[in-house]
Every structure is written in C-alpha cells, then in structure tokens.
C-alpha cells in the first residue's frame, strides 16, 4: 500500500478527516507501517505509551491483566485506534492489545498525534467525542457489573 | 638543560661546528682570489698592460698570446666561482644537518621533560601550549642553531675580506664603504629593537591562542549548555585582533627597514662612480681596480645586512629558547635514572604492604596526615571516606603516582619511595577515575601495561637503515630503543605469546563484565584485514545456519536477503545500485550523485532520466510535507530527505523545473534531484515511486555498474556475493546477508537476538570477541561508554599481574549492580594477591579483609569490616 492509499485510509477516520491534506500526508509519511504476527503483543498494559496504532487490517484482542489472569474485554478490527489513552493521559498503558490474526497497523508517534490535535480543533473535538463515548460505554459496563454483583 | 641557548649550542654541537670552520676559511681565500682576479683580467689582459713590451706572457710556465692569456685567466675565474659555489653548498648542507640534529635533540629533551613532570604540574599546564612549544616555537631554533657560529664567521669573514680588498685598492673608496656599512650596522639595529618586542608578543599571543582553542574543544559541552558561543566568538575575535595589530605594526617597521637597507646599498655605487671615476680620470686609480671595487662592494652590504639579521635572530631565539625552557624546566622533574629500563627485582615472599607516618601536603594544605598501616600482600584492603577525606590521595600515594612529603612506604621489601618507575610501574597496577584510554584499539589499550621495554628485537632490525637511525638517535641524545621491536612482555602477563594472551584478555573481560559489550562491538564491526580465511569460512557457515534457522522458525521473510537478480525493497536505492558495501568515501551515498562513474552508468543505462523524474517527485513531496513545518522542527532530522536549510533551494529548483522543464535544468540542479533518490527505500518510505519497471531498470544498471567498473575503482566497493565473505561489511551483516524488513513489529530485536544465539551455538564467540578487541576506542576512549572505559582500564591493570593492584574509585561510575559484579569479579581474580581499593560505596567494604576509614586526611579506623561495624554500629 502506498502513501496515497494510506492517506485515503486515514481520511475515513473522523479524527483525521478534517485536517489539511498536507498534514494527512505528513502523518502517513512519518508514521511507521508495522505488521504483527498472530499472537504478537502490540501494546502491553503497564508500559509507557509513546505511540498510538491505527488498525489497517486484522483483528486485535484487548485484555486487562487481573490477579487471576488476563480478561478479554474487547476486540478491535479494521479502522480502530488503539493506545491513544496512554498518549493523552500520560498514564501507562491501561490494557494489553494482542494480534489475533496477522495485523497491519500504522504507528503514529506521540509527538505527531499531539501536534495534530493541538493544531486542529476539529480533530480535538472528534477525539473528545471518542473518549466521551468510551467513558459512557465504560460507565454503562461498570453499572451493569455493579448491579450484577448486587443481585 | 642549559639555561642559555649558546650554552646549549656549544655543549652539544662543538665538534660539528669546528668541522665546518676549515671549509669557511678556505672559502674566504677562494673569495679573495675571485675578487682580485678580475682586476688582473681587465688591467693586464684586456687593457694589455702585460703586453706592452712582449707579444706573449707567461702563465704558469706557458707562453701565451694576449687572447689565449685572457681565456686562461677567465677559465681560472670560472674555476674559482665553481669552487666557491661548491664550498658554500657544502657549508650550507652541513649547517642544515647540524641544525636539524640540534632541533631533534631539543624537541626530544623537552618531550622527555613532560614524561618526567610530577603529576601535580599537569594541573597547571595546558596541553595545547606544550604541543605548540615543542612543535612550532622551537622550529626556528633549529634553523638558527645551524647558523649560530658559522654564519657570523662566514659572513664576517666575507665582509672583512671585501672591506680589506676595497681599502687595499684605495683608501678613499674604502672609507666610503666603511661609512655606509657603519650606518647600516648602527642605525638599523636600533630600528629593529621594537620589532623584537613585537615578535615576542606575537609568540605569546599565538601560544595563548592555541591554548584557548584547545579549551574551546574541551569545553564544547559547556559552551552549548550555557549558550556562550557568542562570548567565545568575541573572545577569539579579540585575540585575533590583538595578533593582527601586532603583525600590522610589525610589517610596517619591517618594510621601512628594508627600504632603508636597499637605499643605503644602492647609494654607495653612486659615490663610487663619482669619487672613483674622478680618481681614475686623475690617474690615481687604475680602471681595473675601480671595476673590482664596485664588484667587491656589490658583495658587501649583503653580508653586513645578513650579519645584522643574524644578530636580531640571535636575540630573538635566545629569548624564545629561555621562554620555552623556563616552561619545561621544573625543579621537581624526576631524574632520568628514575625511568631507565631496568630489571625487576626479586620480591620478598610473604612480604607486607607497610605505610608508616605517610603524609602528603600540597599548596592547599595537608591531604594525608601521618597514616600508618600494614597489610599482607595477599590481602584485600578497602579505603573508605568521603570526597576530601584523603582516601583518593592515599591510594595515589600507595600507587606511587604522587611522592609522599613524609613517612615511608614499603611493598614486599621494596622501598616504594625510592624505587624507580620501572619497578613501581611493574609491581603496581593502578586504575584511576576517570581512567585514560589511548586512541587505539581496545587490544592496544589493554596491552599498554606490558610495554615497559623491548623484549625482543624486531626481525628486520638489521641493515644499514637501522644502523643509520641508531647512529643519528645517539648523536642527538634521543632514545635508541626500537619502536618496531616486540614490546609486549608476555611473560609478565604469565602468557607464552600472542595467542595465549588473547585467551587471557577474554578471561579478564569476563572478570569485569565487559565481554558481552566487546562481543557486541565485534558483531557490529567489520573483520580486520588480517583476519584469517577461517573467519570468512565461519561467517559463511553462520550465514547458512541463519538462513535455515529463520526458515525453521517460520520467519524467513523477516530478513530480505541480497540476491543478485532481485531488487531488495528493504534496502535503499543506493544499496540496490551498488549491490555492495562502499569502501571509503568514493561511493558513499552522499557522494553518489556527483560521482562521475556512477553518472556514466546511469547515463549509459538511461536510468538518469528516470531517477531525475523520481527525484523531482520526491522533492515535490518533501516540499509539500515539510515546508509548512516551523523551522528547527524535529521531523526534518527524522523523516525528511531534505535539510531544512536546503528546502528553499529545492523549492527554487522545482519552480524552475516547472517553468523550463526538467531537461533544461543545470547539471548541479539535476544532480541535486537525482541525489534525493539514493536514500529511498521502497518498503520504508512507501512513496509508491518504485514499481516493477523501476526495479528492473535498477537491476540492469546494477549489472552494468559491476561489469564496467574501472580497475582503479575496484577497491572502492565490495560486492555482495551470496557465496562469498564481504570483508567491508560488519560480521553481523555478513551473517544476515540481507536487510531486516521494516514494518515487521519486533523484527529487529528478534533477529539481532537470533544472530547472537547463533554465534554462540556455532562457537564464534571467541572470534567475534577478538574482532571486538580491534575496535578503535576513539579520542580518550570516547567511542566507549564511561563505565566500559573504566572496565578496559581495569583489564589493563589486571593483565600485567601486579603485586599490588590499586583502584581509586575505579568502578564508581558504574551503577550499583554492575559495580557489585565488577568488585566481586576483580577480588575473585585477585584472590591471594594484594588489592587496595578506594570505594565510593561503603557497603562493598564488607568484601575486603581490611578496611581503612579516612577522615580529614587521617586514618581514623582500621580493621575487618565486621569489627568496625560492631564498634560503630
């Protein structure tokens, strides 16, 4: 896949859709294309996050470590973003992402991601929207769990 | 060393100077004859004074006619000129030799002083100034020493001869000449006095400049950290300005004097023509004599001027000599006998390391105060104390780097206070902090401690050349020890020879936990030229195993191997074109676009147009991507093909290309665009510019490049050969023989790990470590990390098996865990042998038999760690 195709790809992401074309191109050009073999760990819970990954192809399993072993909490597929929380929250990775099949990703470094968000309010809004949705999702999950344990 | 230059000259070159004197005297006689003869030629042959009464004249018993007589006299004149010239030639050569010999002696003597300086002196002197003095400032001395005695003799003789000759012809003319010479000899030196002062100032400012430049280099990090580069610029500018002002005045005076000199010497013939002509007309002087006087006078101002020059130079170099010698001569230098090569004395068995009332005081006070202790030479002693407690100074005293100001120190029956360096340097090993590494290979650095004196003559030491070298060295007081002899004392290391000692070095690398680092360096360096055929075979076998291993693990596509007829998409275009490793700078990727052979290949395969178009696209993309970034953005360094500074230039090229088309661009512009394509890697950059057609064209050019490579460029590239070893590539590249694919997560880590495992399995470890020992450590060891430098220094000290090993905070720069490993390793290695270690971490003292606790220069406690612990809690 060439640079042009990658640009096409990231345009489909609401975060990147509205930024200038030159910036989109720079984003792709300066990002690394990384392939993970099935079973390879993409990000590990507890590590320091220095990059986020855009899944171009393949399936990723998200799990969190618990004292009784890792629990799979989600799966992510094509066009998902992984690992952005650690970048913006300045916290260690909150979950582990493992490649389920052969996974193709675009690795966006922390500096680049921050730069894009800083310079593009639209992208920032979009990021907030994603995070808010995730928070809502987590809250819902939590309340389900809490009520589940009560009953 | 003599305090005065003439003392030095007479002491060391008396014989040489005297040997030239007869030649000088002889040349005076010849010179006088050559002055007198023209008079005879003019008066007796040309004007025919001898032929008034007879048709022939007698010439050494021959009767000759007038013409023959003239020819005969002219021939004699010619012979005299030739003889005079030959004498001058001999004298000059001998002077030159003598000067060079004396210069060599002087330089050597000064360098010898540096080797004998007490260590404290190095806190006060600047390395660069020492170097300038030995290298540049004494250089004119060499020239002068050749002239020192001979020139006044020769020139004075010449001037006197001419003077006497003129006076003898006519006293009036003689007086005129004398008067002019007198003015020259009195006035000019007066004018020159100021020049001398200026010259001295110039020397001092230039020396300080050298010192200052060295300071800038040493303090580069501070300058950047404090943003003081402009301050430094102003500093240097002021210094250069001062030098300029000195020189400015210097030249003004110099050329004024030159003008005066020229005027004086040219006005004299005017007087000769008028006064002398008058005398000839009046019949009181014959014409031949006048012509001879004018000819003789022509030779007079030059020697007088040169004599004056000589005198100025004398004053100048005498001052220079004194200035330099003052800098070097130090009351405290060690006497030469102290460092003379000597045999190692037999040490008493079961002896002790014994210090009694050991003291050290320097300008800042008492550093070590009456320290007494005793330890067996099979014991390990720890010295603990805060910085400034005297712990470091005590270890330096024990290592005999600093002579004690009081008390005594004994090691196994040897009085260390008086023992010469040849003894202390062999029975004591010392590692300081930071330890210094010489800019050579790791191996040279660890063997350095074994080079006390030549142990075996070099095989080619015989022959005339060697005899000449030794004779000259002796004549100039230089060292006659042969540098090409075998200096490494294998026996001292307990080894039988070069092979054996390699094994020993590797053992010691393990002791200090350095072997892995050296192994790593070995993998990442190319094998040395002298590496044997077995190295090549081992690497080729490893390459094959690596291939199989990758296949077995199912990751064979993690490495894209080099294949003569495949384009390697993980490699750059440059690598694909060359299909080999560049040797030297000729085919370096930065030079490739301008390289004439590469350009020819591109032209002949018509690849140049394609690359030009590709380069144009790269430039367009780069300008589009990067021109929006603020200046100095880190992305330029990380991702851009174009320097930030060059970006406007490429914008201009693109603009021009848009106006006139690619074909009309200048050669330089085209090269700039083509140059952009060489670092392009298909897999990494994903610009979509390298398609199948492009690859095929490059492969064609690759073949053409190899086939038509001219003979003289064969050494500039070593081609990849699937079945051959590549001596220009690193060991790791030889094993991999390909590129680790970009974009495979974790591939680099996994593959490098595999290479290491494989090297171990195949038994290549020793070979690789040896290759690592060939690693050049750089200036001051800068290519190694500081902990690794300390480790190399510890290996150097261990290798010579000293009776006593002294370490002064030698491992302090290491982190706690590695420090523990190194302390344990060294102590285990030195079991039953003496160690004195000044520690920065007290907890390590537990591992030692005896602990000395220092506080404000005093030894406040001594004993076993457990005892001290009990007492103090």
Which descriptors would you attach to this protein?
heterodimer; A: 151 residues; alpha+beta; four-stranded antiparallel beta sheet; 6 helices; globular; B: 873 residues; alpha/beta; 16 strands
Task: Note down, in words, how this protein is organized.
The complex is a heterodimer of chains A (151) and B (873). Chain A is α+β, with helices and mostly antiparallel strands. Chain A has helices spanning 3-11, 14-17, 21-29, 84-89, 110-119, 121-150, and strands spanning 32-36, 41-43, 51-57, 60-64, 71-76, 81-82, 96-99, 103-109. In chain A, the strands form two sheets. Chain A has a four-stranded antiparallel sheet with strand order 1-8-3-6. In chain A, helix 1 packs across helix 3 and helix 5 packs across helix 6 (121-150). The model of chain A has no long low-confidence stretch (mean pLDDT 84). Chain B has 873 residues and is α/β, with parallel strands linked by helices. Chain B is built from 31 helices and 16 strands. In chain B, helix 1 (5-46) packs parallel to helix 5, helix 4 (139-147) packs across helix 10 (301-328) and helix 6 packs parallel to helix 10 (301-328). Chain A binds chain B through residues 1-4, 6, 22-23, 25-26, 28-30, 32-37, 40, 42, 105, 111, and chain B through 555, 621, 624-626, 628, 634-635, 638-639, 685-688, 742-746.
